[in-house]
Amino acid sequence: MAAEKAKRSGRIRQMFEIYRTTKVHDTNLPWILLLCFVAPILVSVLLAWLLPGSWFAWILWPVTGILVGILLVMIVLGRRAERTAYDQIEGRPGAVGAVVQSALRRSWRGSETPIAINRNQDAVYRVVGRGGVVLISEGSRQRTQRMAADEERKVKRALRNVEVVHLYVGPDGDGIPLSKLSRTLVKLKPVMSRNEVGAVYTRLSSLQSSPVGIPKGMDPNRVRSQRPR
């Protein structure tokens, strides 16, 4: 019982810490969270007034509204904290690695370390999932195009029939915002089974030798002054 109380108390403190650090960069956060909490309560009271029922309904509807409001606050806080966190590191070398490390779903596998990098710290990352083998370029589109093409040829030599998808995260053209990278991967059309994902990832990992000096992705949870924990 004591352990459960301590765990629950730790979660509450963590939520307050996330709120405090996110509010620094997201000035509209307090008003948005207030609206998320109050709106379901007002709707529930209105429903209790419009729908005929006993005194029990007058208790049940507001309680339901409060619970829904708390849930909405937690969901919205989490999403805005994540977006704010990635906004703080977007455009910096290793930002894609941070997403690969902390935000990919279980159906995707990859490393926070890029598989190719140049002197300008433009990099190419590789992840494997139901959508195939995805090469994610970070930095200058022009400088990463050749790097990504070279990596695709390596993949094709090892696995001829595998699907290779190219994504670009950066300031040039129609680059994908860092905060939308994870969702973009999830939306890719499935072309491999779960077993195939594991086999392909293992095969490509066995062929990869990491160049010296490649920086790992920045963990957004460790950027103390800019990111919520």
**Unreliable sequence segments:** 210-215, 217-229
Number of strands: 5
| Helix residue percentage | 55-70%
Average pLDDT works out at 80
* Structural class based on helices, strands and sheet pairing: alpha+beta
Shape: elongated
Topology as a string of helices (H) and strands (E):
HHHHEEEEHEHH
Strand content: 5-15%
Please give the alpha-carbon distance between the first and last residues: 26 Å
Distinct helical segment count: 7
Largest sheet report? 5 strands, mixed
Q: Radius of gyration from the CA trace?
A: 22 Å
Transmembrane segments: 29-49, 55-77
Pfam families: DUF4191
Region (Disordered): 209-229
Keywords: Membrane, Transmembrane, Transmembrane helix
Give your account of this protein's structure.
This protein is of the alpha+beta class and 229 residues long. 55% of the residues lie in helices and 10% in strands. Strands 1, 2, 3, 4 and 5 form a five-stranded mixed beta sheet that branches. Strand 4, helix 5 and strand 5 form a beta-alpha-beta unit. The longest helix has 35 residues.
List keywords for this structure.
disordered C terminus; 229 residues; membrane; elongated; five-stranded mixed sheet; 55% helix; alpha+beta
Topology, pairings included?
Blueprint: H1 2-25, H2 29-50, H3 55-89, H4 95-102, E1 109-110, E2 116-117, E3 123-129, E4 132-138, H5 141-158, E5 164-169, H6 181-186, H7 194-207
Parallel strand pairs: 4-5
Antiparallel strand pairs: 1-3, 2-3, 3-4
Helix pairs in contact: 1-3, 2-3
InterPro entries: DUF4191
Keywords: Membrane, Transmembrane, Transmembrane helix
Organism: Leucobacter manosquensis
